[in-house]
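FAQ
Q: What does a multi-component entry look like?
A: The components come first, one per line:
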Amino acid sequence: MLRTTPFHPRTGPLCQAKNWRRWAGYVAASSYELTHEREYHAIRSAAALIDVSPLYKYSVRGPDAGRLLNRVVTRDVDKCAVNQVMYTPWCDEDGKVIDDGTLSRLGEETFRLTAAEPNLRWLRDNALGLNVTIDDVTDSIAAVALQGPNSREILKHASDAELDDLRFFRLTPARVQEVPVTISRTGYTGDLGYEVWVDAERAVSLWDALMAAGEPYGITPAGMLALDVSRIEAGLLLNQVDYIPANKALLETRKSSPFELSLGWTVALGKDQFVGRASLVEEQRRGPASHLRGLEIEWESLEEIYAEFGLPPELPTIAWRTSVPVYSNSKQIGYATSGAWSPTLKRYIALAHLRAQHAELGTKLAMEVTAEHQRKSALARVVTTPFFDPERKRA
Amino acid sequence: MAANRYDAVVIGGGHNGLVAAAYLARAGKKVLVLERRHLVGGSAVTEEIYPGFKYSVCSYVVSLLRPEIIRELDLSAHGLDLLPLESTVTPLPNGDYLARWADHDQTRRELYRHSPRDAEAYDEFGTLMYHLAFAVKPILSMVPPDPTSLSPADLRSLLKLANHFRGLGEEKLYPLIKLMTMSSADYLDEWFETEALKATMSASGVIGTFLGPRSPGTAYVLLHHYMGEIDGAFRAWGFAKGGTGSVSEAIASAARGLGAEIRTEASVARVIIENGRAAGVALESGEEIRANVVVSGVDPRLTFLGLIEPDELPSEFVQAIKRFRIRGSSGKVNLALDALPNLACLPGVGPHLRGAVSISPSIEYLERAYDDAKYGSFSRHPYMDIVLPSMIDPDMAPPGKHVMSIFVQYAPYELNGGWNDAQREEFGDAVIDTLSEYMPNLKEIILHRQVLTPWDMERDFGLTEGNIFHGELSLHQLFFMRPAAPWTDYHTPIKDFYQCGSGTHPGGGISGASGRLAALTMLEDM
Amino acid sequence: MSRPYDAIVIGAGHNGLTTAARLAKAGLRVLALEGRDTVGGALVTEEIHPGFKVDAACHQIGALHPGVVGDLDQALGVTPDIVRSDPVVFAPLIDGHPLLLWRDPIATAEAIATFSKRDAESWSAFVELISKAAGLLEAAYERTPPDLLSVDASDLWSLVRLGGRARRLGKRDMMEVARLLTMTAVELLDEWFENDLLKGTLGATGVTGMFQGPMAAGTAYMLLHNHVGTENGTVRSADRVRGGVGVLSHALRDLARSCGVEIRTNARVTRITVKDGRAIGVVLANGDELEAERVISNADPRRTFLDLVDPLDLAPRFVRQVQNIKYRGACAKVNLALDTLPSFAVSDPALLGGVVSISPSLDYLERAYDDAKYGDISREPYLEAVIPSLADPSLAPDGKHVMSILVQYAPYHLNDGTWDESRTSELGDRVVKTLAQYAPNLEQIVLARHVLSPRDLETDFGLTEGNIYHGEMTLDQLFFMRPVPGWARYRTPIENLYLCGAGTHPGGGVTGRPGYNAAREILKDVKRG
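Then the predicted structure of the entire assembly, as tokens:
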């Protein structure tokens, strides 16, 4: 049997679509309603409540907790203040990304790391000689993301936290109706939003409190389909989709460095020795071979392609996550890994790995589209990510 | 006379002999297969020993049947239907169990219950094994070169091999070498901590060998579990509808369809050799059959020491065959059951009964089972691999009834005092007694029991010393040493006489690879 | 800005001293640091009882690398006096006459003939095979293992030469040797012989120092390993040093000094200083920091990488490889001061001058291993005993003797409890009791007993898990796999940090070969700059 999350007593009955998918051995709702459209718009215009409990979560504590994490992740953990959160990838010894997640500093010697894939063994192996305790707390801590423009108001009503002072990528302990929680101003939607972390046993009370407080603000439970569109708009990567973790890649060419994923900003080469550093120093000197970039597929080009068949452009109704070739002058120079029609931007967008010389912003490329069973190339332009970056996200 | 002459005569209608015959017939050759028993299949037979119940008497799972053979001989059109074995459950002495299921998430969750670390390592291990299986594959479908030869063909072949290995890179080459030289227990120790997991995985490394999980050289068989995946097969271990005999029948049917002639109850007494060349065979009945070439599917010991006059062979070669190790180490118990057995650790009917049940709670358990055999006793508490074919194919038993196949190790061929009827029954009792500890209702539901010792396997199936692989799969008996250098490319010291059984590269299991490679080699010569 | 030393060698065992001397001879400024108060590592001769001196740990030496012998000769004008006993082996039975192995194959064959005519007839061919195979190994031992992945021209050449040498053996012998490498001692010996005592006595060399029984693949290789460099025709030769192995240690020390090596004892290294992926010196227990252009470790790989280097300076994959090196010591040592000669059933005491081998059959050895496999001390252990005072009376007072016994199996990892005093003394009791079955007076003549458990070998001599070879000599830990795959060329992932101990190719035994090879590779790098 697949596992259900601690919120399942609530999310189960709410899922009218009976549209479930697997996420790390748990069942997660793809959409609650029969279409995910309203759930997506809740994220962008009101507030959405998303069960993200299946994320792998590791508690890292002890005098050497900071040292261990500094050894593993690419960012400088010393710069992470207590109650701060950092997004960071981590690499193997060849500087290829194994996974990415958020690192929360809950105390001087207490951290929590989230991951898309199991990483307990990697963390423990790297803890050789260090005084640190690493526990897998995936099952014991539930997490729910409250995302959207109204999320702050809802949380203000539901909790005792001083949210006006809580900056982007900061966290605070708080209570939601007597339930002790941690609120972090983080999320996977690129919007104003929070993630609330709670003991699994109290998950249902938290859900109820948030739903009650959010009711006047249009709170809507949202599933993975809505989340997927918004994370692409936000230019956020998905492990196993936008990159293959280095420890699972069957081919060397399937691995990516942080530079190649355009995560160079997370690589603190200035700090002490960390796993992959030597390779990354070398790669920075040489320059990465490719970049992960935003692509915007030109509407006019799509119109032209479909006009040939006497059709208007047929757009993907949900985000896709297959590998699609990208061309420059009919020569393949990369591949897109996920894409979606952005209902907010009214643009067809995608994330793509592009060879370095074709990755400059503004470069004109072409992406394969299949129209009427025929493979065509639609013009596309290299653009900056996030595609959608509202001011309220950080405000 | 000329009309009776065959292009090729195949000695032994086991699966490799049948495969070789089919490929020869496919190339337009006039082929005759001679089988001693009343049915074809050798060790791959289904027999109704007890009315209404069909036993896969010896070989009971189809692990490595080469997909190209299935394709090229169109075996599905000849009735081959492979069904998946879904899971492996290892009952533990403390009443718990360790299961590995078809579903990745379910397996991960189950392993996590025993060790979070192992759950993660299992995935990485799987990735590595997948790589390594892919790296080894070309070797399995390659005719071994002679490393001592300076012939351009052998050198080319060796160079190709060397380049292949260098091309693997350190992440694959070194683990592969380690895999080839280590014991499965040590190899798995580098990855896992759960005893039952290590034991159950390493058990596959000792099947059919006279080795324990701590014996170096047992690790590489771990690869076999991953071989299926890279061939596009949906799962490594399968079960043939109708029992293992239906694999043989499908191949036989394909061979007949291609024009091969198959005679049963035709026991070959010797190979006729004229002027240093094989010219045909003489049957026990005295009948002589002439052929341009003769190929033997029986094991090397039987082939070279039983069917050929010693003075026809170089004495060095005879010496090499004599010292070719072929010690049998396993037995088989087949049961007709009145009802389903109940596992104490997982009571009732469940999906676990459609998979294998492995009695391998710890490395020490297996190692102690081996210790008994080292000194000439059968294991008091043996390793057992159990399947219920009737759960996968209901036609194997009357409705509501079941058959159970128990592969048992260790049972040494050279038992202290020798095998006899009393020893056989005692061995059967040890199996049932041990199994009853995990399946409390077993004794009450047994309708019939068939016990096969290595001695029975030799007598009934022509397996010398009861060795199921036609020769031990130890390091110095593999590849360009199987069965004896330099006669590893299916040729023999006698012209026009070939070998195609499991005693040649790549060795045991119902893979058919030896039969196919031998036939291709013969066709090249012809 | 140059550092005060060109090289610091950590550990002054025989390989460390060999490397140090070779480097200094080439003009390098070398400092050798030894944590104990004496050099020589496991090659020490100690007084276990007033007037009784014995080789505390290692009591016999292998064939020293000819280059080392040459160096000693050249620098000191003398080489330690090697005692080559004849007969080499005395293998008794409880009921039955003993088997003697002599230096002369013909004499040995005659001795064997009293047990089995057939075996006696096979003897000379067997000896020839062993010599041929060991000769081939010796050629491989003189070379640095090739890097299989980036075989360059010189590696290829070395492989071709080895291949050429292999081919010269002839097709049949070559396949024979190839078979041998992966076989078990039992398989090998069963092919050749029928007598249990003979097979047991030969098989014992296949398991010495191994946590394996003779039924394990790779033990035939070990049997060959123990015959590399020994004089043709002598099987199971056991060379000793007159005055004790300590004499050899001192000779190597004097050699190193004469080449200009500075040696410091009581200088335990606690850390190798690494900066930007490069070794630049060491830190001592007393806090002293010493700088050098390069650091060479004679310590075993686990100690070197997991204790002396900050794991942060190593890739996790490499750390995992080092953690996976198997040590699992299997031997213990029992040293006895004896009031008189033990009463073995022997006509002439001189026949006891070689090794007394308690190895009545291969099954005996395998059963001894069976106990150890499950974490117990062998109920009836395999014993390799020597009475050095027979040939060298200076080791014991007049008429008295010392006996040095290598015991197998004594597993480092016991299934219940650890190697405390009571387990150690239990081991001593078992050994004396076992041996007393062959020499009935033994229990009465013991004046002093000195037992070293695998744990003691670890604490006293820095042998991880008590493994006398600095890592098991199993097939997966040999040649280009030693100490870990990809790093078998004495270099390490840390620039300017090298290994020179028995944990590297060609492994254990007192030969100086790893140290000699390491020095050659280091000097290559020095030349390259």
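Q: Is there any commentary attached?
A: Sometimes. For this entry: Residues 203-214 of chain A form the longest helix (12 residues).
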